[in-house]
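Please decode residue identities from the backbone states below.
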């Protein structure tokens, strides 16, 4: 409840819950959800729920897991909240781990697991929104949706993370255009990438400090004609992409030369900026609240400049 009050106090229009840890999940009962919903409705806040997963594997041991019961529980929670979107993230970084199954194997596993949940998700009236995290690229998600015989606006969708696509070697504008019909939620996050000895390093920044073309992305979302909430995400840390290693680069078979050229241009732009720099993850708790507050103001300014306020 304190988070919802913080959103109200800082001029936000809603909250997307990425997910709750096991201790919080044990505290989630119908009355808790009813209280959240009542507060949100009284303050006219949108709510988007989280906690779902889509890759039916333990992302450390790679053993098989059954996700149906856990996803059914969060779908039921979302339905009680009146939230139409449930964010799904399995947290995997399989391309960075040689012991991981191939991406194609994980796509097939994911497709099989999701098909088994289709009727359940429809019954709850929610869309399972797969975050563009460090698991699948937009190219791969389009293949996954085809495997699932899914259509945009039905039971599967995407949380468009505007910065994470850089870490998956995708230009943010190109990635948005590829996956646009499937976007049902967002993580509006600015960021940068820069050349390092073994390839690229990517990182989030405050809104307006990075090289992500947020106005271009937001304009495309608006032109889609579908209501998609702009939810800010930010954090510290960096991610290394060993693109000089041919074996690592081969794990991104859909990456075309012209898109790599776009990424290299973004990296040059970032290197020329005094503000496009990473934040030490250890320092994030100290600056989180202030930066998120500034991010909300900056995002609202972009929306106003686009004539969409």
């Amino acid at each position: 409840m304190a988070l919802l009050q913080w959103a109200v106090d800082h001029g936000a229009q809603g909250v997307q819950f990425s997910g709750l840890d096991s201790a919080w999940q044990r505290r989630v009962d119908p009355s808790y959800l009813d209280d959240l919903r009542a507060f949100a409705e009284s303050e006219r806040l949108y709510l988007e729920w989280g906690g779902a997963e889509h890759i039916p594997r333990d992302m450390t041991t790679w053993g098989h897991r059954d996700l149906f019961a856990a996803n059914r529980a969060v779908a039921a929670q979302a339905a009680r909240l009146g939230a139409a979107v449930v964010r799904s993230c399995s947290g995997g970084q399989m391309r960075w781990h040689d012991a991981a199954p191939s991406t194609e194997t994980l796509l097939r596993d994911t497709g099989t697991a999701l098909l088994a949940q289709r009727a359940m998700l429809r019954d709850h009236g929610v869309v399972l929104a797969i975050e563009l995290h460090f698991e699948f690229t937009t190219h791969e998600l389009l293949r996954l949706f085809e495997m699932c015989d899914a259509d945009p606006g039905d039971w599967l969708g995407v949380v468009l993370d505007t910065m994470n696509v850089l870490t998956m070697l995708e230009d943010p504008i190109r990635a948005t255009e590829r996956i646009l019909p499937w976007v049902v939620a967002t993580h509006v996050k600015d960021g940068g990438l820069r050349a390092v000895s073994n390839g690229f390093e990517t990182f989030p920044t405050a809104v307006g400090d990075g090289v992500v073309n947020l106005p271009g992305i937001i304009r495309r979302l608006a032109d889609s004609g579908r209501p998609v909430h702009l939810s800010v995400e930010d954090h510290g840390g960096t991610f290394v992409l060993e693109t000089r290693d041919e074996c690592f680069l081969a794990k991104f078979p859909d990456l075309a030369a012209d898109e790599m050229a776009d990424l290299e241009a973004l990296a040059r732009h970032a290197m020329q900026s005094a503000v496009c720099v990473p934040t030490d993850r250890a320092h994030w708790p100290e600056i989180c609240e202030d930066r998120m507050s500034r991010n909300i103001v900056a995002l609202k300014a972009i929306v106003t400049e686009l004539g969409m306020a």
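Observation: The domain at 14-161 is CATH 3.20.20.150 (TIM Barrel).
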